[in-house]
Amino acid sequence: MSKQALSIGIIIGNRDFFPDSLVEKARTEIIDVFAKMNIKPILLETSDTKLGGVETYKDSQKCAELFKKHSEELSGILVLLPNFGDERGVADTLKLANLNVPVLIQAYPDELSKMNVVNRRDSWCGKISVCNNLYQYGIKYSLTSNHVSFPTDAEFQKDLLDFLAVCRVVKGLKNIRIGAIGARPGAFNTVRFSEKILQRNGITVVTADLSEILGKAEKLTKDDASVKQHIEAINAYAPKGKTPDAAMIQMAKLDVVLKEYVEEYQLDATAIQCWTSLQQNYGCNVCTSMSIMSENMLPSACEVDVTGTLSMYAMQLASGSPSALVDWNNNYANDPEKCVLFHCGNWAKSFLPDIEISNAPILGTSVGVENTYGALDGRTPAMPLTYGRISTDDPKGIIKAYFGEGELTDDPLNTFGNRAVAKINNLQGLMNHVCRNGFEHHVVMNASKTGAILEEALGNYMGWEIYNHKG
């Protein structure tokens, strides 16, 4: 996923009393950088305007028409300022194109040995003017780490990679389709959400009755070719441990139907009623199927946590790697900056090097352990951590979220299920924010450092209320 090439439009700003050679060289440089980074550039030819730059209103019209022609594939726009640039030219292009995609503003640095008329850029000043105009026009934009930088600089290329991730998140969330399979567990008011608020933000929820899924699964037999194929796939995914063959067949049948449902409704993610009807009326857990989907970048959350799986999808888009839904579950001894993350468990295989299909002991106390096979057992080792949560705040009529970064550790943890130890600076302050702002006990973890990307994508471009916990 992270290796997929994105198309980015390029606006090269220019002003006629600055050296043309600066624009010409910038065009060549950025094309080379894009080629090395596997990015498809969409930009004017040198025959379309003076050196392919944008300065006059006619230039803006030509560039905007080019962008509109490629609107289906364009994920974002890079504004390149090899000199001061014409702020109106940049703003008019974006206004006329009306793409509503992320915009990154770059500006070249001047060199002390080249401050003469032939080489002077004044891009430092020009960037401020461009941003001022975009602000006036109501166009949202992103900034580089340093105010000025060369496209060939490692720092700028890191900025560009982060910008691509922002583009993936924004584009991916605009038309996401989430399957809500079954009713939320009656005891879990915490996972309630507003479909209407989500829909206003381009997020569609497709509902299905759990009985329809289970009914179709029950009609399948162990002799059906599709069931045999899914048993093989499950065995290849994780060791079965002590899971009985009968439970493996039930899991495979359910897996067949879920796959068909996802394909029929073209879903990007699912949230499933994982207890207790499934165990009582069907006789297994759906955790393994959910883990397989999440590992294959089709995130699946338990307890019909729709905004939980939305959080998984957003973090997956930001990092290019699977996410997992977890509980903020336990303190870790007396350490105020560590806690235990847990679920019973459906985490993607990427988090579980010692993965094994097992049962769910806690759930088994009420529905019978024999009916809970399909849960996964495994410990997540030390790795980077980005955590976070998206939620609808129905009284306010908004979408809000929090994110932050930390570490998963190898600290001893003698328990069962899917489990991890997290270290987060000022964890007590974070828990205070979670509790005071009515967030759910579910949080999402991702093996990355993408908090700033999520803040930019969801706060700046989606317009959601964001808290980024800096610790």
UniProtKB/TrEMBL annotation:
Keywords: Carbohydrate metabolism, Isomerase. Residues 341-467 form the L-fucose isomerase C-terminal domain. It holds the Pfam family Fucose_iso_C. One of its GO terms (molecular function) is L-fucose isomerase activity. One of its GO terms (cellular component) is cytoplasm. InterPro entries: Fuc_isomerase_C (IPR015888), Fucose_isomerase_N/cen_sf (IPR009015). The keyword Isomerase applies. GO terms for biological process: fucose metabolic process. SUPFAM superfamilies: FucI/AraA N-terminal and middle domains. This is Fucose isomerase.
